[in-house]
Amino acid sequence: MKTLFFFLSVLLIPFSCKKKEKIIIDVPWLISLNDSEALTYNARDTLKKYNEVDEDIIINKSQFFSFKANLNSMINDSLATYKYLKMAVEIDSLKMCENVMIPIHNYFYQERPDREKSIPSILNYQLDYIIDLLKRCEIEIPESKGIKPKNRRYFYWLKYVMTRDQWYRVPQREENWEAQSKLDLENQIFIDELFVNTQYPQEEYFKQALQVLLLHSDNSKWTYKWLKRYFQIYENGNEHLPFIKHFEWRSSVVNDPKIQNLIMDYKNLYEKKNRNINIER
């Protein structure tokens, strides 16, 4: 019996001691495609292929998990996107900062990134988490932007919204007004949700962004609500008349009676302030 046991043990040794060979997976940390690439890229098939890879034998796991987070975001799986992003950060936060967070930050600061590369899809589902990671990576908004620290989250969100706002409006991109209208409506929902219980920031960047969104809106209800808030937020300024003139020329909903009355109220207030200033002089 002992002889049989010894014989079986010898037979099993080569198999039990054999180790799987470690490999490096050649994949990008961040998927950012131009228009033609985005049309043909099949994220679902790519994900199926890489789901078959044994994760235990991968050397560059952080890179691989970041790539899988991207793929899952492209098939609208928000939970899996977050899971793999979190795993990638836990394994190698430094390389995630260098290879994912810095490129995302730079994407927002390129000259009109919407003309070059599609928005990295992970921003569509995990932007708040990514904003937190940007802070952990000590990536700061340039001081020249004049953004208060408490408004950094709103700044990145507005950067995201404004990129989407320009997506099919830029001359270099083929016009698609049906798709742009869909983005505009989604952007309005983002703005409503971001500032439902929060005062809209007063920094210049936010004012200019809101002006653009108001000009482009074809939703009269949303336009009225936010034009009214615009006047309330920046009530101490007399510089709004040029914007209002442009709004009257540009807006597709300017003839809405409520909007007309709102503009008239502002003009009357503006004229009254000017008369008072002249009297004081």
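^ that was protein a. below is b, sequence first then the tokens
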Amino acid sequence: MNLREQIEEQNRQWRLFHEWEATLALEHRDASRLIADVGTILEWMPAEARLYDPDPEKIGVRKMQEALSKLSR
């Protein structure tokens, strides 16, 4: 399977997921379930993708912490 086919397959899977998701009733989901979902998605990713750090200086984390510190005052 070449890269184009992989991307097309991934897009097909996302389309099917969004179609399935649209059939669900909206419900409140607590944070622990959302974190579990994110953890599952991370497990699906290839190991090399999980090891790649797009922000090695952690600038994004520092900006988020700065924003949260303003909210918690």
